[in-house]
Amino acid sequence: MPEDRELDALRAAVTCSAVLENLAATWRFDARESTRNALKYRSGPGEVLIINHDGKGWWDPLSNAKGDVFDLVQHLYPDLNFGEVRKKLRPLVGLTPSYPAAPPRDGLRKADRPVASRWSGRPRLRPGSPAWTYLHQQRALSGAVLEAATAGDVVREGHLGSAWFAHHDNGTVTHVEIRGSAYKGSLSGGHKTLFQFKAHRGYPRRLVIAEAPIDTLSLALLEQMRGDTLYVATGGGMGPGTLRALEGLLAAMARVKGAEAASAADANDAGERFARRHAELAAAAGVAFMRLRPPDNLDWNDVLTKGGNL
Q1: Cα(69)–Cα(140) distance, integer angstroms
Q2: Angle of CA points 193, 38, 84, to nearest 5°
Q3: Does the pLDDT value for residue 104 go beyond 80?
Q4: What pLDDT is recorded for position 111?
Q5: pLDDT at 45
Q6: What's the confidence (pLDDT) of residue 109?
Q7: DSSP characters for the chain?
Q8: Rounded CA Rg of the chain
Q9: Alpha carbon 24 to its chain's center
Q10: d(C-alpha 121, C-alpha 119), whole Å
Q11: Which pLDDT score, from 0 to 100, does residue 107 have?
Q12: pLDDT of 224 strictly over 90
């Protein structure tokens, strides 16, 4: 078969999902955060790829990387030349993806009730409550920060002393992250957007993007809850809902004189990838950007609990 015809045949007969499942065994399908037109696969911490165009395309939400099956193989194996990529793809012709399930990250069974309903059934934080005590004593968050988070209704009491952190979309709770002294996960059945915390009224001119809600609150405390700042957390990897929410906030801030965005992602390899993606989003919106980086291999709650300051 002539080379150009073989290339077209491979593009038509090999899906990007089949490539991930057969050439890179660490990738697993995240059904909960996938949609019909965007299939999310996860690998190591902070590693996410989205399969689109009915399996013929893909993109990396943490970078500008995207393309077809040939680009995907070279993304996974940068040292391969084009001829070697063709050899990798030939055995995958006609293979149907099996969509291996990603390990559950929340440890919870899927509930019948919507996430928003389950959130509304939980009590608010109060001084001395189990979640308040965990966040205050183990995570070093001050009473003032916890009162502001409670007033904004972004944190509630969970089960067994855990704290629930809400992601909102147009005022509706769409996702809940859970943190406790012995548990880390999220409610099943929702979809991520952003955890958002603002301690004061008024429209912000500064957007600070962290990974976890506790890091968001920690940095807000370290910065003495700046009145000009909206602190947000992506909950780790950025799926379609999170990207839309960030793009919407940045577009709104672009209309504010002197607006700026800052990435407060963790000081590790995954955090640096997130920060680069944050910078790209800010540049696309025309908003000034800076990297707000904790010390090496730390996050902002580490800085807070170790008694650090800015």
Answers
A1: 47
A2: 125
A3: no
A4: 46
A5: 64
A6: 42
A7: --HHHHHHHHHHH--HHHHHHHH-TT-EE-GGG-BTTBEEEE-STT-EEEEEGGGTEEE-TTSS-EESHHHHHHHH-TT--HHHHHHHHGGGTTPPP--PBPPPSS--PPPSS-HHHHHHTSPBP-TTSHHHHIIIIIS---HHHHHHHHHTT-EEE-GGG-EEEEEEETTEEEEEEEE-SS-EEE-TT----BEEE-SSSS--SEEEEESSHHHHHHHHHHTT--TTEEEEE--SS--HHHHHHHHHHHHHHTTSTT-EEEE---SSHHHHHHHHHHHHHHHHHT-EEEE--PSTT--HHHHHHTT---
A8: 21
A9: 22
A10: 5
A11: 41
A12: yes
Indicate the pTM of the whole model: 0.68
Domains annotated for the chain, with CATH where assigned, are 3-92 (3.90.580.10), 115-305 (3.40.50.140)
State how far the alpha carbon of 276 is from the alpha carbons of 165, 262, 298, in Å.
25, 11, 18
33: which 2 tokens? 């955060």
Tokens 């943490």 locate to 62
